[in-house]
Amino acid sequence: MPEYTNYPALERFRGADLSHVADRARRTLGDDVMILHTRTVRDAGVPMVEVMAAPSTTVERVRARLEPAPLPRVLRKADGRPYCIALVGPTGAGKTTTAAKLAVRRGMFGAARPGLLTIDTYRVGGMEQLATYAELADVPFEVVYDAREVEAAIKRLSADCDVVIIDTPGRSPASAELTERWRTLLDAIAPDEVHLVLPASLRADLAIDIGRAYRATRTHCGATHLVLSKLDEVPRETGITDLALSLEMPTRWVADGQDVPADLKPGVPRLLRAWGLSADAEPDWTPA
Ligand SMILES: Nc1nc2c(ncn2[C@@H]2O[C@H](COP(=O)(O)OP(=O)(O)OP(=O)(O)O)[C@@H](O)[C@H]2O)c(=O)[nH]1
Ligand SMILES: [Mg+2]
Predict the structure, then answer these.
(1) Res. 152: pLDDT tops 90
(2) How many angstroms separate the CA atoms of 9 and 13, rounded?
(3) In what order do the strands lie in the sheet with 46-55?
(4) What's the gap in Å between 116 CA and the centre of ligand 2?
(5) Which of 78, 99, 157, 272 could disulfide-link 277, Cβ–Cβ 3.0 to 4.6 Å?
């Protein structure tokens, strides 16, 4: 079995009518079976009902693998330092856009006040992109070029912010030296959470390799969470839940478009829905 299918699978049942098929699923998978997808298919020209089903314990396992620990009720630390959430990931994945969505969405972190910090001083226009959003939404914004500036920048932000979103440059495998530089900067910030932003359309085997590279860093802060971006570019969101599961990181948010801040959604309900759990319809957006 390929590595990326190493997640709880759904089972497929086919038959002439739904009640018989559901019965067979129940007999095979147990009384607590959950019917996920139902559709009509043609088998050698004959119309059939097809269901995808899983025992409810599997559904719970999937949920548990995707569900992040809740954010602390009070984000600001006892020592006055804001809670720091960094976004990392390959070039063009959607880090800056997601950072802007998180920081400018009203009530995103309840009553906690957000701020923005960027260490992307390499890409032309990267800093300006975020500065514009910060200015429009009247969110404090800091740029850090050097590890020695980190403490002062966080201190300035802590005057007005309880949570700080950190944008980082895209990491190109070809530029190890550049990567080392921003990694050192991120270490100096020591974020509480590091979210790896990956486009949902990425090939699973590549995504797994990238996920591994961002997580497994002995000397640097590794990724702790996943943000799947560009859901809107995946037809019917097919396979996105499998992708998230194969990356083995909890998913607090997903991004489904370019609109700031509207196109950011809670991760688990969306991924469970894409997996087929229609009963768990997406709730109205309730900020983190
Ligand atoms: N369709 C779609 N486009 C998105 C989404 N998120 C970001 N984008 C677009 O993807 C492009 C790159 O987004 P950025 O936020 O600049 O990506 P980045 O990871 O910061 O890129 P670098 O800083 O260059 O590494 C922009 O055109 C965004 O508008 C999304 O959820 N859906
Ligand atoms: Mg960027």
Answers:
(1) yes
(2) 13
(3) 11-15, 46-55, 33-43
(4) 13
(5) 272
What are the pocket residues of ligand 1 if the criterion is a CB atom closer than 6 Å to any ligand atom? 89, 91-97, 120, 123, 126, 169-170, 229-230, 232-233, 255-258, 263
Residue 181 confidence (pLDDT)? 82
Looking at residue 31, its amino acid is D
Alpha-carbon gap, residue 205 to 209, rounded angstroms = 6
Phi, then psi, of 228 in degrees rounded to 5: -85, 125
Mind listing the pLDDT tens digit for each residue in 160-208? 999 999 999 986 655 677 778 888 899 999 999 999 999 999 999 999 9
pTM: 0.89
Q: What's the CA gap between 113 and 105, in Å, rounded?
A: 11
Residue in the structure block whose two tokens are 């959607």: 94
User: Which atom of ligand 1 has the smallest separation from the CA of 233?
Assistant: 1
Cβ atoms of 165 and 115 closer than 8 Å: yes
Q: Which atom of ligand 1 is nearest to the CA of 171?
A: 25
- Non-local (6+) Cβ contacts of 12 within 8 A are 50, 51, 52
CATH of region 83-276, choose from 3.40.47.10, 3.40.50.2300, 3.40.50.300, 3.30.70.660: 3.40.50.300
Residue ID of nearest Cα to ligand 1 atom 12: 92
3-class SS letters over 34-79? EEEEEEEEEECCEEEEEEEEEEHHHHHHHHHHHCCCCCCCCCCCCC
Q: Which of 95, 97, 231 to mutate to test the pocket of ligand 1 (most atoms within 8 A of CB)?
A: 97
pLDDT for 173: 56
Ligand 2 centre and the CA of 102: distance in Å? 14
CA of residue 250 to ligand 1 center, whole Å: 21
